[in-house]
Amino acid sequence: MLDIRGVTKSYGTRKVLTDVSFTVGDGRMTGFVGANGAGKTTTMRIILGVLSPDSGTVLIDGVPVTASDRRRFGYMPEERGLYPKMKVAEQLVYLARLHGLSPASARRNTTDLLERLGLDARAGDTVESLSLGNQQRAQIAAALVHDPEFLVLDEPFSGLDPLAVEVVMSVLAGFAAQGAPVLFSSHQLDIVERLCDDLVIIADGEIRANGSREALREQHSSPRFEIRTAGDTGWIRSQPGITVIDVAGAGDSTFAVFEAETDAASQAVLHHAITLGAVHTFSQQRPSLATIFKEVIA
Q: What domain of life does the native source organism fall in (predicted)?
């Protein structure tokens, strides 16, 4: 488990992080989101030891992280950092060897990753000859080739087409399934919502929201419900404690969206609907990640 505790960082008189604390659990995909300049990259660089905090600490399983520990990290910076004139496979083998892998293991990992990321046909090409999307895949491969135990990825989905996004999501989920804590930032909130188990939202250098995806959706949910039935739903307007937002449909498929003042009021709607006929669906509307993000940074 990776813990960031009370991390504060300033550049001169400008404070960029204030008491930043959150946890990246083993086998958990943690999405790290915020606007440009919110402090995501600075936080990641402190985790990796590229920057030092003014105060606070980074721990692994309760123990301060060391330089040796950081060799177990896989880090992908937002800026591409591969050698442009070096061939893709040669570069990955070289990076794996720098992390202590044997030549055979480095070659095996390189071959496996290039295949999983759809770059096997480009193994002998130089990085600079690749499209921007394939350069991004190669950068991701460079972060993973040494079998890291922790992943810290800054905008890994930037520049990827929808098919490549699916491929990368699958590869990262595979590392998490093996127990690796995975921290990734992204401006693509729809991807974060699909992939993350936990979510950290940062704004102006401060953590504004932190928790599991479902817990945050529950926390920020409004008392708004949707019901779809086989009969008319206009009667809901007359129910006590109910404000109807929308009613539509006709015949054997109608729905209504309404807000309830209490749980009892929403349940009364459901029970009455059941007495009138078939109820196809009844659910509380949950906010999207984009909605939560806008709410907490406002």
A: Bacteria
Residues 190 and 145 placed together within one structural domain of the fold: yes
Calculate the average pLDDT of the chain.
Answer: 93
Could you read off the pLDDT of 105-157 as tens digits, one per residue? 999 999 999 999 999 999 999 999 999 999 999 999 999 999 999 999 999 99
Counted domains in the chain: 2
Q: Please answer whether residues 123 and 90 qualify as being in contact, where contact means their C-beta atoms are separated by less than 8 angstroms.
A: no
**Helical segments of 150-262, H only:** 162-177, 189-195, 213-219
Residue 74 CA to residue 140 CA, distance in Å, equals 9
What distance in Å separates the CA atoms of residue 215 and residue 213, rounded to the nearest whole number?
6
Contact 182, 24 (CB under 8 A): yes
Give yes or no for residue 298 having a pLDDT over 80: no
For residue 235, the number of C-alpha atoms closer than 13 Å in the C-beta half-sphere is: 13
Q: Which two tokens stand for residue 222?
A: 């409004």
Residue 241 included in any domain? yes
pLDDT at 163: 92
Tokens of 61: 């399983």
SS3 content of the chain, % helix, strand, coil (to 5): 40, 30, 30
Q: Reply yes or no on whether the pLDDT at 251 is more than 70.
A: no
DSSP helix/strand/coil, 95: helix
**Shared domain check, 213 and 258:** no
